[in-house]
Design a protein that fits this description.
Helix content: 40-55%
Shape: globular
Strand order of the largest sheet: 5-4-3-8-6-7
Order of helices and strands: HHEHEHHEHHEEHEHEHE
Largest sheet: 6 strands, mixed
Strand content: 15-25%
Number of helices: 10
Length: 240
């Protein structure tokens, strides 16, 4: 990420691309004869779900492959995949695994505090209305996923970063976030802001586990340098 950001700050304009269907198909072929569960990031925000679905249709035993739109990305997506791996290693069937993941997938909530709206606008991931607020970047806008999870829309316009985080906290409180949830804070080379967000979150959700992650280049390409994503999801029942 550091090498990537150095190029961006020097003027490079990054772009991203979904995995080629052939590459996805090649990975599926390596596992032919086994049950395969593909946990893609949110359809609409990424083409990975559609790539996986297309590859599945080309497989001779496609009934053994389940492609899941996790409806999320970054922190919760990472958590969902890690939990799925743990359950698979514990002997859970694909059906059992998916049953346990379902509530987490359906109840995940994501908020993003960008520093540069141009990255989101260029990627086409904003609703037309949200794209217009790039003229007020001296404030601290917050975007969230639309109800179908396919786009980002305005959630709040705040005076500064702290006010933006407090608006997110209020949204999480209305959602009923508690100690049975996981909160993740992901950032693009902005650890100072991320740690400040953690401090505010801990004051509101003292019993809730909070994890901090650094964003990889592909996510920085979408959210922009210095962006901070705050997300929450129900914890998945441990694999036993």
């Amino acid at each position: 990420s550091q090498a990537f950001l150095k190029q961006v700050r020097a003027g490079a304009v990054p772009i991203s691309s979904q995995p080629a269907i052939g590459d996805v198909l090649s990975e599926m072929e390596k596992l032919e004869g086994e049950k395969i569960v593909v946990l893609s990031m949110a359809d609409g925000l990424s083409g990975t779900y559609q790539s996986a679905c297309s590859a599945r249709e080309l497989m001779p035993h496609k009934e053994d492959i389940t492609v899941i739109n996790t409806k999320t990305l970054c922190g919760p997506h990472r958590y969902i995949v890690q939990q799925a791996l743990q359950m698979a290693k514990s002997g859970f069937s694909a059906e059992q695994l998916l049953q346990r993941l379902q509530r987490c997938i359906e109840d995940t909530k994501s908020y993003l505090i960008p520093q540069d709206y141009e990255f989101l606008r260029r990627g086409g991931r904003l609703t037309p209305f949200a794209a217009k607020i790039n003229t007020i970047l001296k404030l601290a806008p917050v975007v969230t996923q639309t109800q179908d999870g396919k786009k980002l829309e305005r959630f709040a316009i705040s005076r500064n970063f702290e006010s933006a985080v407090k608006a997110i906290i209020q949204g999480m409180q209305k959602q009923g976030v508690n100690d049975k949830h996981l909160i993740t804070v992901s950032h693009a080379d902005n650890d100072t802001a991320a740690q400040h967000a953690v401090k505010l979150l801990k004051s509101a959700f003292c019993a809730t586990e909070i994890l901090v992650h650094e964003l990889s280049p592909v996510f920085i390409t979408q959210g922009g340098p210095l962006c901070v994503a705050i997300q929450c999801c129900p914890k998945i029942q441990p694999a036993i």
